[in-house]
Each structure stands twice: as C-alpha cells, then as structure tokens.
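Internal ticket - ligand job 274, LLHOTIJI:
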Amino acid sequence: MNDLPRTDLPGIVITGASGRMGQMLLRTVAASDKARLVGAIERKGHDWIGRDAGEAIGIGPLGLPIEDEPLDAFARAQAVIDFTAPAATLEFAALAAQARAVHVIGTTGMTEADIAALEPAARHAVIVRAGNMSLGVNLLTRLTQKVAAALDEDYDIEVIEAHHNQKVDAPSGTALMLGEAAAQGRGVSLKEVSDRGRDGMTGQRTRGHIGFSAIRGGDIVGEHDVMFAAAGERIIMRHVATDRSIYARGALRAALWGQDKAPGQYDMMDVLGL
Ligand SMILES: NC(=O)c1ccc[n+]([C@@H]2O[C@H](COP(=O)([O-])OP(=O)(O)OC[C@H]3O[C@@H](n4cnc5c(N)ncnc54)[C@H](O)[C@@H]3O)[C@@H](O)[C@H]2O)c1
Ligand SMILES: O=C(O)C1=N[C@H](C(=O)O)CCC1
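stdout (structure tokens):
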C-alpha cells in the first residue's frame, strides 16, 4: 500500500509508466482534481521499478513507487489506463477484469485476434478502447463517416498519417479508425477495400478502395489527413496533434465515464457522445 491520502475520488493505475504516454498520463492524473493516482506499473526488470513515480518523471515525490505486480495495484484501483503494447494489454485486460476495474486501452497495433481476445474480460468489466483518445480526432472520425456517406466512388479516399520515428505499428490506430469510419459511411467492409503499402508496378488505383500511407520521422506527435480526391477537386480534412496531453486527457475522461457503466466494450465515441 502506498502512503497517498485516501479520498473518495476514483483511484487510477497507469501502466507503461516510463513510456511517452505513461509519463504524460502520470502528470495528467496527478494534476487532476477528479481522480487520484494509486499505482504506476512497468515491466519486470525495468530500471524504474521501486523508484517514486513523481521523482522518475521529474514532478517531485508522489509517494507512489513504480511496481511490477499489476494485479496488486489493480486491486486498489477503480480504473487502469493502459498505453503499452498488445501482449501486455491482453494480460492487463484479464487482470483488470479480475479486479473489476475499468480498463482504458490506448494501445494500438492490436490484431483482430487480439481484439477478440478482450471479449471474456469485457463480460466482467468495462473496457474503453480507441486508437485515438483525443476529442479532435474523434470529431474528425465522425465527420469522415458523414463525408464518405455523402460522396460516391468518384471520390478516391486516402488516409495519410505521420508519426515519430519510435512508433512500431503502421498504419496508426487513428488511420485505421478513420478508414473504418470512411468504409462505414460508404457501407462497405474496410477489410475488402483496404489498400496498404503500395510499391512497384501496382497497377492503377482500384475504384472504391481506401488507401493508407504512413510517414515516420523525428518527433512528430501525430498527424492525419483524410483526402477525398476526384476529377477537378480534393477535399482534405486534417488533424494535427502538437502535444500528447490531448490523448491523456481523453483517457482520463474515459476512465471517469466508465465508472457507472455496465461491463462491455466501448469506444471514445461512446464516451464523448458523438
Ligand atoms: N489511443 C491513443 O490516443 C494513443 C495515443 C498515443 C499513443 N498510443 C499508443 O500507445 C502505445 C504506447 O505508446 P508510447 O509512445 O507511450 O510508447 P512507449 O514505447 O514510449 O511506451 C510503452 C511503455 O509500455 C511499457 N510496457 C511494455 N510492456 C509492458 C508490460 N508487460 N508491463 C508494463 N509495462 C510495459 C514499456 O516498458 C514502455 O514504457 C502505442 O501502442 C501507441 O500507438 C495511443
Ligand atoms: O505516438 C503514437 O504511437 C500514437 N499512436 C496512436 C495511433 O497509432 O494512432 C495515436 C497517435 C499517437
């Protein structure tokens, strides 16, 4: 047990505490007057284990040591915010369900099989999962669906994303969310119309397909364009993230929103009422 003051505010555990998002989430929850930090988790063997989470991220002592036993931490939490990696997220889903804690999943790069494997956990606890937790991207997603529904296949849909050079998955979770929304708007299955990784003699573009391109470089936080390209005109809708706090604020909002919901799988559209 840590020596944080006990209050009635929902207790939150952050997994992947040393990561780019883990650190931003620790800052966001520590500064919030709507929740309190009750745990910070890293993988076994990480050199931050045992260090005070606040000192490790440079905001001063929080009285919260970084731990490597997730279930112990989840048992004293009302929510777990998890931006890590697919294998870790599957493990955390089972443990969060055991603890009946809301599991907010920001992790991307999950396969269809990974997502299906969340279902047993969602029978016992609330899971909120989204490839992007920001208000702006979720609005763009809804707009994309509406524009795709309004236009026919004379408009070629392309999703272009750019991220930092440490990102390990492509297309980004956000790009897939946007592509899925475009496919839904058109009334087609993304799986059947998705064009990824064009290279070499690809032949002409297939009418009705949705294309994806990924740029990786430097410290780009996250940029997404949805392009509707037709003869004589192009509509381009763009979201540019300049600070990871937009994702952390969305994740905290999801953790609080989930407190009185029935077990099941939800996304940020549910949280934001979009
Ligand atoms: N949904 C969103 O809004 C959103 C926004 C930003 C990033 N992301 C996603 O979040 C994930 C993390 O991104 P990042 O930039 O913070 O990556 P990162 O590599 O900086 O951090 C990941 C952290 O997870 C930790 N981790 C891995 N396995 C673990 C385990 N078994 N137990 C405990 N900790 C473990 C790593 O040690 C690392 O500290 C990625 O999938 C990324 O795409 C999603
Ligand atoms: O930095 C990342 O990694 C991000 N991942 C999410 C994605 O894959 O879309 C959200 C944007 C930042």
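Auto-summary: Confidence is low (pLDDT under 50) at residues 1-6. DSSP finds eleven helices and twelve strands in the chain.
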